């Protein structure tokens, strides 16, 4: 699943619009929409989206033996 689809799911589950996410991030809804279309999000961007959406972001690599290496 693409990152823009995942962000849309977060919005639906948290009953928040993408325009509200943009406002809380301090950017225009148009700029956020362009970022969504391009899918150009850094880990910092994703952490900020999680923060303003009221959730947390967990990123990690999962090794073949089940060990996890946390990115964020």
Summary of the model, kept short:
By secondary structure, the protein is mostly helical.
Give the number of DSSP strands.
2
Q: From the helix content, strand content and strand pairing, which structural class follows?
A: mainly alpha
First CA to last CA: what distance? 20 Å
Q: Which word captures the global form?
A: elongated
Per DSSP, the total helix count is 4
What is the overall pLDDT average?
Answer: 93
List segments where confidence is low: pLDDT < 50 over at least 5 consecutive residues: none
Helix content: 55-70%
Residues in β-strands, percent: 5-15%
Strand order of the largest sheet: 1-2
Radius of gyration: 13 Å
List SSEs in N-to-C order: HHHHEE
Major sheet attributes: 2 strands, antiparallel
Describe the 3D structure.
It is a single chain. The chain is mainly α and 72 residues long. It is 56% helix and 8% strand. It has helices spanning 3-13, 18-25, 29-38, 43-53, and strands at residues 60-62, 68-70. A two-stranded antiparallel sheet has the order 1-2. A hairpin with a 5-residue loop joins β1 and β2. α2 (18-25) crosses α3 (29-38). The protein is elongated and about 45 Å long. The two termini are 20 Å apart. 6% of the residues are buried. The model has no long low-confidence stretch (mean pLDDT 93).
Which helices and strands, and how do they pair?
Elements: H1 3-13, H2 18-25, H3 29-38, H4 43-53, E1 60-62, E2 68-70
Antiparallel strand pairs: 1-2
Helix pairs in contact: 2-3
């Amino acid at each position: 699943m693409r990152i823009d689809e995942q962000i849309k799911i977060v919005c639906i589950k948290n009953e928040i619009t993408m325009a509200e996410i943009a406002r809380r991030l301090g950017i225009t809804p148009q700029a956020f929409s362009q970022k969504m279309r391009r899918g150009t999000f850094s880990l910092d961007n994703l952490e900020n989206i999680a923060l303003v959406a009221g959730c947390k972001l967990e990123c990690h690599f999962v090794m073949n033996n089940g060990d996890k290496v946390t990115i964020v």
